[in-house]
């Protein structure tokens, strides 16, 4: 009876991190710097891959998509929630905007899981079946894998959003988080959320746990193949190639598992820290992880810089002559 007489919530208020002005100012500068580095790093990777013909390979095709997804997922959260709200006393967000924010973030986060699994599969074929690499990982296969990932992630995001926002919101509207995430929003639902949590958990298991298990099996096969190599140089090169991907995988899946695969009763203040890692820190660090440890990317960057410098010098000489 009380539920039938309640008024549907039309907007939410984000609690954020703190109400202390000095801390808010420091956090604003930190998050602004993080976001600028994320934009420059990921855009740089995308432009570099498109501008360098010798980077037009499956591995860098997946890396370019990963940079795009990281840029989008960080943009969904950082400008409005992490920057604007820190400087504003009004931290409200409409019901529709909150739902769309969650949907888009869930979509790109799911695509991220699939792309990391595809990159592990790419390394598995390159190291374990090098003679068949061109046949197995063709450009058509790459396009189909990425397209299917986007499609399945879109459908998963719809289910996630229905599970979180499909209930009745008629009580408190203060979200104890800095953006619209699953458990902080579900705490505000008046109706029973057990079935929604089970469906959500099932799809997270399919996407995140499934992708991580696929990555694990791929790297077990890679390690077995590498250990059978006769040349120590080839073993070192193979491990070096895979190290950056493993680092990105651990940085992404660790906080995500902590956030989404623990019981709702155990969620607390550490959720915000974990969310910062997979929403901001990982998208910022991925370009550096893949570029600073990759000779091909560093070589392409030096060539682009030389080409740009030569072009600038040529134009300067022409301008002086005229």
TrEMBL record:
CDD domains (UniProt xref): 7tmA_OR5-like
Keywords: Cell membrane, G-protein coupled receptor, Glycoprotein, Membrane, Olfaction, Receptor, Sensory transduction, Transducer, Transmembrane, Transmembrane helix
GO molecular-function term, one example from the UniProt record: G protein-coupled receptor activity
Gene Ontology CC: one annotated term: plasma membrane
Transmembrane segments: 27-49, 61-82, 102-121, 141-162, 198-222, 243-261, 273-292
Source organism superkingdom: Eukaryota
InterPro entries, A to Z: GPCR_Rhodpsn, GPCR_Rhodpsn_7TM, Olfact_rcpt
Broad class of the protein's primary localization: membrane
Location of the protein in the cell: Cell membrane; Membrane
Keyword Membrane: yes
Keyword Membrane: yes
Pfam families (UniProt xref): 7tm_4
Topology term for the membrane: Multi-pass membrane protein
Function summary: Odorant receptor.
Similarity comment text for this entry: Belongs to the G-protein coupled receptor 1 family.
Name the UniProt record assigns to this protein: Olfactory receptor
Organism this protein belongs to: Melopsittacus undulatus
């Amino acid at each position: 009876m009380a539920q039938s007489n309640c008024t549907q919530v039309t907007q939410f208020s984000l609690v954020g991190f703190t109400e202390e002005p000095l801390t808010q100012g420091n956090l604003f500068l930190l998050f602004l710097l993080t976001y600028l580095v994320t934009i420059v790093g990921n855009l740089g990777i995308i432009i570099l891959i498109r501008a360098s013909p010798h980077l037009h390979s499956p591995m860098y095709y997946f890396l370019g998509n990963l940079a795009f997804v990281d840029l989008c997922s960080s943009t969904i959260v950082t400008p409005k929630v992490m920057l604007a709200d820190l400087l504003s006393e009004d931290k409200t967000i409409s019901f529709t905007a909150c739902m769309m924010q969650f949907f888009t973030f869930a979509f790109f986060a799911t695509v991220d899981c699939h792309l990391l699994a595809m990159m592990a599969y790419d390394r598995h074929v390159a190291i374990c079946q090098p003679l068949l690499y061109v046949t197995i990982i063709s450009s058509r296969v790459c396009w189909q894998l990425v397209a299917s990932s986007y499609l399945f992630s879109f459908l998963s995001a719809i289910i996630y959003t229905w599970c979180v926002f499909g209930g009745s919101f008629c009580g408190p509207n203060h979200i104890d988080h800095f953006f619209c995430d699953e458990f902080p929003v579900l705490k505000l639902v008046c109706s029973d959320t057990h079935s929604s949590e089970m469906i959500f958990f099932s799809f997270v298991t399919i996407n995140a746990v499934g992708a991580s298990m696929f990555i694990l099996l791929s790297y077990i096969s890679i390690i077995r193949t590498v250990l059978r190599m006769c040349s120590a140089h080839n073993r070192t090169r193979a491990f070096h190639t895979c190290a950056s991907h493993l680092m990105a995988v651990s940085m992404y899946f660790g906080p995500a598992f902590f956030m989404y695969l623990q019981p709702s009763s155990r969620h607390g203040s550490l959720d915000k820290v974990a969310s910062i890692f997979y929403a901001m820190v990982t998208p910022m660090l991925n370009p550096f992880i893949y570029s600073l440890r990759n000779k091909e990317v560093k070589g392409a960057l030096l060539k682009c810089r030389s080409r740009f410098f030569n072009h600038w010098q040529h134009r300067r000489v022409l301008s002086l002559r005229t």
